[in-house]
Each structure stands twice: as C-alpha cells, then as structure tokens.
Amino acid sequence: MPCRLLPPALLPVRDAADAAAYVSEGVLALSECGTEEAIASSLFAWTVPAIADEGRVELLDGRGGVAAAHGAPGRAGAGGTERALPVGLPGLQLGKLTLRWLEAGSSCPAAGIAVAEAICRAAALALTALRQREREERSRRVAEREASHAAAAQQRLELLDGISILVGSSLDGDALLEGLGRVIIPALGDRVGFWLGNGVEGRWQGIEEQTAAQLQGLFGTHPLARLRHVIETGEPALSHAQARLGPDGGLRIESALLVRLAARGRVSGAMLLLSYQPRRRYGAPELAAAEDLAGRVAMSLDNARLYREAQEAVRVREEFLSVASHELRTPLSALRLNVQSVARGVARGAFDRAALLSRMKSAERQTERLARLIEKLLDISRITAGKLSLQIEEVDLAAVVGEAVSRLLEETRGDVPIHFSMEGDLLGRCDRLRLDQVVTNLLSNAVKYGAGKPVEVRIRAEGALARLTVRDHGIGIAPEDQQRIFGRFERAVAGHHYGGLGLGLWIVREILEALDASISIESAPGGGSTFTVMLPLRRPEAPRLEVSGRDGAVREGAASPGA
C-alpha cells in the first residue's frame, strides 16, 4: 500500500497541540508503508523539508549494511551544521536520520528536533512491524511449501505402494503396463507410455504415433534419437514447452520426462511421462519419483519375461519328451516285430533264409536309428555342459562327405537321389566323427524336407576354406524361421507332419562353432533350401632352405615340425 506523504505544513510548531497533530499524521503515514524503501521515503518527507535544508535517511539491514536510503549523501558547507538522529528502539539500532543546515549559525528549534525524534521512533516501529510481517510471511510460505512437499511425498509413497501391489500380482507384461497407466495417471502425469525394446527397434505402448511425433518439437531432436540416448546412457531426459505467446486453445504437451527401464543388468525400454497442464512442470521431485517407479516397472517386466521363458521351457520340454518318446518308440516297435518274427520262425524250425536275412538287416537298421537318437540325446547334455570332446586330426573332407552320402543312399535304398561332387585339395584338420555327424544331419534334413526330389551335395576348396553345400528342392523355409531352426528343439514345421527331435541343426551349429566353422542358409517357401558350411582347410607348410653339409648347396625342402 503506498504511504501518504503529507506536506509538512504544520512546522514551525506554535504549540504542543500542533506538534502532536503533526506527529500523529506522520505516524499514520509511516504505518501505511509496505516496503522499507517507502518507510525511508516517508521518514524523509515528514522531517527534512520542514526542519532542515537537506538531509538523508538510511535504514540498516541488520548486518551492518544499508537496506534502504533516501536523500542527499553530501555534507553541510562551511559554517553550516549537521545533526544525526537515531532510527531505532531501545537497544536496537535500525538506521539514522541526518539533518543539515547550510547557512552559518542555522539550527532547528528544540521543538522541531523533538518532532523529528518522535517520527524517527514511529519509523522504527513501522520498520520492525514490516520486518516481522515479512518473517511471518516467509515462515508461512516455507510451511506451505513443506506441507506441499510432504503431501506430494505421501502421494508418491501411496502411488509406489499401489504399484508394488500391482506388479506383485501380475506376470503378464502387457496387462501390467496397462494397469500401471491407470495407477500413474493423474498422480505423476496426464499420460504415460512405455517403449518396449532397445534404442533401434521396439514399439510404443500407450502412446500413439501422433503423440510421439509431438516430442520432436519438445526435445529438439527426433524422439527415437533422444530415446536411444536415454536407453544407452541411462541419463533421463526432461523437457518443457516454450511459453505460450497467446491463447491457442489446443491441447499440447507442456512437460515430458523420459527415463530408462533397467533391472538386473537388462534394459527393457523406457518410460515416458507427459503433462498437459502448464501448472505442472516436471522437476527434481518428479524425476526422483519417476526413476524409482521405472526401477519397479523394469523389475516386474523382467519377472514377467522370466516367467514367460520358464513357461516356454516347460512347454518345449513337454513337447520334446512327447516327440522323443514317439521317435524312440517307432524303431523299438519295428525292432520288436522283427525279433518276434525271427523267434516264431526259429520256434517252428522252418524259416526262409532270405526272409531271415531281411529281418535281421531291418533290425540292424532300427538298432542304428536307436543309437543315433540316443547319441543325440547325449549330445544335448554334453553341449549344454560344455563337454563336447573333439579329436582333431588330418582329414580328407571329401572322403568324409562321400561316406556319409553313400551311407544315406543305402539307408534310403536310393529312394531319394543324392548327387555328390567335389573340387580341389580338401585336406583339413578337424574331428572326423563330428564332421560326419554334421554332414549326416544336413543330409537327413534335406531328405526329410526335400519332398522326394534330388539332393545336391558339393564340396570345393576356396582359398583357406572348404565350402560344403547341401541343397534340396523341397518345401523351403520362411525368412522369419531361418535363424530359429538352429535353436534347440526348434522346427520350421509342425512336429506331427515330420518326425525328429528338433535337435539336428542345433547340434550341427554347436559342432561347427567348436570347429571354428560356420553355417548359413538360403531358402524360400516352396523353393527348397541350401545350407552352406565353411570349414577351415589345412594350411600348407612353408618351405625351408636346407644347406648341405657336404657340398654347401642350398636346397628347398619342407620345414620340420621343430623349425
């Protein structure tokens, strides 16, 4: 409130009544001042013009400095006089009033000084009251702020408790995030979304494309670029919209907060909080709450992932046991029938020699099939335990491939033609039995899925590597399944259409990795499949120069192992 600066027309004082009236008006004017500057100005106006030629008011800040001042800072001229009156209360110095008379011998009557002293005391009272009100106002604001922070902290605590209950009751990731959105809004934002994936690939849940596009203007860069930075570094992103230039009437994002979702060393994505209210702009408290919330969300998502993987592992195990029991039962049944047939013939004492030989060969084939199935099952435990043993030796790769082709032609009785060709020096260092296992699995796979069409097998030298290709002209494999089929118990087709344990290609890949080799596939549905294996060849030994001890001649020869 502006204070009244009444012209000091009542001085010089004629009597005590005049002085009392003047002081009363000055006290009222000072009590209406709302700032320290106003008190200094009012004290000056009610004293200096009526009493002295010039003067100055200085109010102290309590630390020895000047809080407010008014008037001329100069000194009286030669012959003039100056007088300082305190502005304060008993035991409390709050400032001073300096009065100056410029003419020699000039001074103020005692009545005027008494009036000035009274007004100085009134100024001290007004200043003390003003500062007390300011302290009370500051205390009130601090109390309100602390109460607001306490209420916000309690709200966040209740929010986190509610989220803890939610995440503890659900192991479905999508349902969990949907429930979290309902709990978080409006406690921490007007909109919440989740990016599920890494900084390159993923998907938004709870955020539409047009909403994500608005973030570019807010963050000053493409949303995915900022998202990638948050996910890769863990640094949160906090941004506010520019101030509105005028009423645009549209709903816009006022504030956005992006934090990473990470738990157990695994990053599952990011969480985005949006505010559409200008009065709610995210800061340090919201950031702390969002990071705590993100940790809980990430932990629950990881729990959901582990639960899904456990369920999938149980499903795969049950399917494998079902397939394995079927695969083992088939040769066992055939073997039992052959043995029973031979036993009946022996019991009767009459059997055909050719028929007996056929039965025994059939029994031998089923026995070999059982042995291969059992060996595959044993390979699972060996590979998983990292105990796949290798016997590395010099091997003619073409010979190993040719033997596997001949054996499979014999087993299939030539029902599926297999064309084999080789080219170049194909000596390598590897495990003969494991290489045979790789070729046999690839050939069996080609025959099984080749729709009875010819299979082409080719091996040739290419520099320090041998390229082995096994090509069929069967059903082919869809692009999305071409990496999955190398997994354990995986197939590209339903198990009831084609037999097998779903282990062949997985074992092939594991063996080749142990041999420092590689495998790739080219295929299309209905266009057959081509598996390509790159095997290391034996490197030729560097020639060495030998010096004959008898004639001193230099001759070229193979380097000895100790050279």
Chart the SSEs and their pairings.
Elements: H1 16-31, H2 36-45, H3 48-51, E1 54-60, E2 66-71, E3 81-89, E4 92-101, H4 110-169, H5 173-184, E5 191-197, E6 202-205, H6 209-219, H7 223-233, E7 237-240, E8 255-263, E9 266-275, H8 284-348, H9 353-384, E10 392-396, H10 397-411, E11 418-423, E12 427-431, H11 432-449, E13 455-462, E14 465-472, H12 504-514, E15 518-523, E16 529-536, E17 543-547, E18 554-558
Parallel strand pairs: 11-13
Antiparallel strand pairs: 1-2, 1-4, 3-4, 5-6, 5-9, 7-8, 8-9, 10-12, 13-14, 14-16, 15-16, 17-18
DSSP strand count: 18
Biggest β-sheet strands, sense, barrel:
5 strands, antiparallel
pLDDT averaged over residues: 79
Extract low-pLDDT stretches.
1-10, 245-249, 542-563
Number of helices in the DSSP assignment:
12
Helix content: 40-55%
Q: Beta-sheet strand percentage?
A: 15-25%
Q: What Rg, in angstroms, do the CA atoms define?
A: 48 Å
Structural class by SSE content: alpha+beta
Order of helices and strands: HHHEEEEHHEEHHEEEHHEHEEHEEHEEEE
The 3D shape can be described as rod-shaped
How far apart are the first and last residues' alpha carbons, in Å? 104 Å
Strand order in the largest sheet = 6-5-9-8-7
Description:
The chain is of the alpha+beta class and 563 residues long. 47% of the residues lie in helices and 22% in strands. It contains twelve helices and 18 strands. Strands 6-5-9-8-7 form a five-stranded antiparallel beta sheet, with helices on both faces. Strand 8 (255-263) and strand 9 (266-275) form a beta hairpin. Helix 1 packs parallel to helix 4 (110-169), helix 4 packs parallel to helix 8 (284-348) and helix 8 packs antiparallel against helix 9 (353-384). The chain is rod-shaped. The model is unreliable at 1-10, 245-249 and 542-563 (pLDDT under 50).
